[in-house]
Amino acid sequence: MRQIDKRYLREFLPAMAAYVIVMLMIWPKVDSVDIPVLKIAAALAPMLPLAFAAWAFIRRVVASDELEKQMHLMALSIAVCVVGMACMALGFLASAKILSFPGSLFTWVLPALIGVYGVAMWLTSRRYGNPGFP
């Protein structure tokens, strides 16, 4: 494993572990908090570990070579277009009162982007002859 990949995992995995802990320990208690400032802090608590995970990803992309950067750009472009179009379609359906969504649906946008990015990156890496991309 390359040094860049080791650094990424060293930064990303603890951030995601902290995210899981926050989601298991703090997030379920948001509804029971009555003080507005504390409620906002509890509701946004998962954002801190996600910011560290995003920072690890950004550092990984910046440290990549040119081919890897090209692959990241292609995968991110695909992910943004697919998820963006799905969100727009759902938004139009909700605006036309055909479907109704809870506000918590927005919490799935980032996981959807990450999931579609992962698939697109895998497909892109195969295109460039790297079928072993994790």
Structural features, described:
- The chain is an all-alpha fold and 134 residues long.
- Helices cover 72% and strands 0% of the residues.
- It has 5 helices and no strands.
- The protein has helices at residues 3-25, 36-44, 47-62, 66-95, 109-127.
- The radius of gyration is 18 Å and the shape is flat.
- The N and C termini lie close together (11 Å).
Q: Beta-strand level of the residues, as a percent range? A: under 5%
Tally of DSSP β-strands:
0
Shape: flat
Radius of gyration computed on alpha carbons: 18 Å
In N-to-C order, the SSE pattern is HHHHH
In short:
With 134 residues, this protein is mainly alpha-helical.
Which structural traits does this protein have?
5 helices, mainly alpha, single chain, 134 residues, flat
Task: Itemize the secondary structure elements and their pairings.
Elements: H1 3-25, H2 36-44, H3 47-62, H4 66-95, H5 109-127
Helix pairs in contact: 1-3, 4-5
